[in-house]
Design a protein that fits this description.
This protein is an alpha+beta fold and about 300 residues long. About 35% of the residues lie in helices and about 15% in strands. The strands form four sheets. It has a three-stranded antiparallel β-sheet. The longest helix is centred in the first third of the chain and has 21 residues.
């Protein structure tokens, strides 16, 4: 609705300034600077050249507008104001590319920028926000780096689903399709070491995720708990349950530098919009007949 209102306002302003936009260069040249002649009505592009639009700028006063040969009315002033609003809105949206920001984070950023007026409300940014589809955006996102290094993923809670499923993870806020939810956290080890751990586990459940990074065969060891880097944290990724039929998360690999050191990580991305209080699940990629190559009865793998 805000976008529609802005478009209507811009259209109205354009109509009001149509006389300005059709001024010829000869008319502007012959107007001169004489106070005995009416000031030439320049177009909006000339106005922006004289008074550049920026995130931190202030619109020119009536005295400044007249001094530079622009009309006294607010036509160009209002267009400048609307353009800055759109610029600030885009800045806030671009600042959070892969994780939907809370109203608190948006409010803090607005305060840090020192904006006192002419800025979108946090609720508007939340309504317009969509995750970036680019993995490059993920690998350079400051919020993701912080969550990875400190394991401070928000919007998630651990819940006990009873004897059959055990503990799992539910969403405490909505997640949009494509949004990063959390990581599958643990020490990254060679796949050969992970396979030895699998053999030692026998029939027990294992929290190990095998993946390829280029030519390397690796494994995330979430079996060793708690991890050495977060001894007081019960990380979410290892507790997300399996679903072959209705997963709402998918895993993907990326390389990041959360502490300045290149690190291989596995992240969970939402496969679809996830409402509040929905249990998070992903397809483990194994089936009843092939699980660990043992052919054992694994009812939990069916759902």
């Amino acid at each position: 609705q805000d976008a529609v209102d802005a478009a209507v306002l811009l259209d109205s302003l354009q109509s009001n300034s149509s006389d300005d936009d059709h001024q010829s260069f000869s008319e502007l040249a012959t107007a001169g600077g004489s106070s005995s002649q009416p000031a030439a009505r320049k177009d909006f592009s000339a106005f922006v050249t004289s008074f550049p639009i920026s995130l931190d700028g202030q619109p020119p006063s009536k005295k400044q507008r007249v001094k530079y040969g622009f009309p006294e009315d607010r036509t160009f002033y209002d267009k400048w104001w609307v353009s800055q609003y759109a610029q600030r809105r885009e800045y806030l949206l671009e600042h959070f590319k892969v994780r939907k920001p809370s109203t608190g984070k948006l409010s803090r950023l607005i305060r840090q920028e020192g904006w006192k007026s002419n800025y979108p409300k946090p609720e508007e940014i939340q309504r317009l926000w969509k995750p970036s589809p680019s993995n490059l955006a993920i690998e350079s996102d400051e919020a993701i780096m912080k969550c990875l290094s400190k394991q401070t993923w928000t919007g998630l809670a651990i819940k006990d689903f009873g004897a059959k499923q055990g503990r799992g993870v539910v969403a405490t806020r909505p997640f949009l399709k494509g949004e990063i939810v959390c990581d599958y956290h643990g020490k990254v080890i060679p796949a050969s070491v992970g396979k030895e751990m699998i053999r030692d586990l026998g029939d027990q459940a294992g929290y190990l995720f095998f993946f390829k990074a280029g030519q390397r065969d690796l494994c995330v060891d979430a079996q060793t708990f708690p991890c050495a880097c977060h001894p007081d944290s019960d990380t979410f990724g290892r507790l997300i349950n399996h679903s072959a039929k209705m997963p709402n998360l998918k895993l993907f690999y990326c390389s990041v530098k959360p502490s300045g050191v290149k690190t291989d990580v596995i992240l969970f991305k939402a496969l679809s919009d996830i409402p509040v209080d929905t249990q998070l699940k992903f397809d483990y990629g194994v089936r009843r007949t092939s699980f660990r190559g043992e052919g054992l009865n694994r009812e939990w793998l069916d759902e």
